[in-house]
Hints:
By secondary structure, this protein is α+β, with helices and mostly antiparallel strands. The chain has ten helices and seven strands.
Amino acid sequence: MGSQAPADSAGRVLFGQTRREVLGLLLGRPGERFYLRQIVRTVGTGTGSVQRELNQLTEAGLITRVAEGRQVYFSANRSSVIFNELQAIIEKTAGAAEVVRSALAPLIGEGQIQVAFIYGSVAVGRQRVGSDVDLLVVGDVTLAEIVPGLRAAEARLGREVNPSVYPVEEFRERIKQEAHFLKRVLAGPKRFIVGDDHELGRLAR
């Protein structure tokens, strides 16, 4: 699926699905902590498998475990010597892009989306707690069609997804007019969900 496919494959090779999902949640929201039931609900797999992953990741020093009364909380260990490197890998293989792609999968499968990418702070890995996920979509699709899926993505990510949606012809016209917003977005870093720079350039012509 464009330039993002190798990253997806790498993520599947490096991490099992449950581990990817757990790390995607904790490293994607490093300033927050979660109890087991929250993680299970977000990841969407069994309690036993999630618990095993949490135990192993804690023993490896990649996440922290803190007990307060009867509740136990887990969070990313930002003191880990490989935190930055691991977070970068997770963000590229199981982070916001993966979550948004899953949410838009039905529309992608129908060929309604030609190009879609995340831009802004999330694209460059500088997001903070509460940072929005900025998304640009070009294709034969409307905002109303993608919103339901994005609401599910927001629930998983714990942050808002702000989409900008353009039909292909309108996108091309705005490019010709050198619209300030598109000019700025296209000049910045991108994390592709559908397509790649080549496809984006083709659509812009």
